Amino acid sequence: MRQLNEVLYSGSSLLVVGILHMGAWLRWPAALIPDKGPQEAVLGAGLSITMFWGATFTLMLVVTYLPGAIYLARRADTLLRTPAFASKIVDRQKWLKDNGLRLTLEEHLIQFGVMLAPLMAGPLGSFLLAPLSSAG
Questions:
Q1: Which segments within the chain are labelled E, that is strand?
Q2: Is 91 helix (H, G, I), strand (E, B) or coil?
């Protein structure tokens, strides 16, 4: 599970950086347009493209992380029910929780937030770059 989380964190950070980079490049031509109407259209197109890819990347993270996490959690629960482990571990649910192998929202809130990060990167990047585009 630890390795799966590391893959999730590193993948999400790369995708967020990619979305922010894409957003910056898509907003840059708007600074060259003197008229407000076409400039806003270019900015809107850039935002919609980054939102599309953010949603796509978020879904990609979800379908990459969740099946593996579900498999690991179920496998660990199954192994803990075997006689070899059942005699050694008194509280199975506590052991699963302590080792990060229970899949509940409260215990994996950070991971779910990390999965949503690419989706949030598009609007956040537009918000952060808005002062730069209006200064030109």
A1: none
A2: coil
Rounded to whole angstroms, the Cα distance separating 3 from 100 reads 12
Residue for token pair 């390795």:
3
Report field, pTM of the whole predicted structure over 0.85 = no
Structure tokens at 122: 């598009």
Per the structure block, which two tokens stand in for 117? 């990060």
Q: Which amino acid is at 95?
A: W
CA 128 to chain centre: 19
**What's the CA gap between 13 and 38, in Å, rounded?**
32
**Would the pLDDT of 135 be above 70?**
no
pLDDT in tens, 5-49: 999 999 999 999 999 999 889 888 888 999 999 999 999 999 999
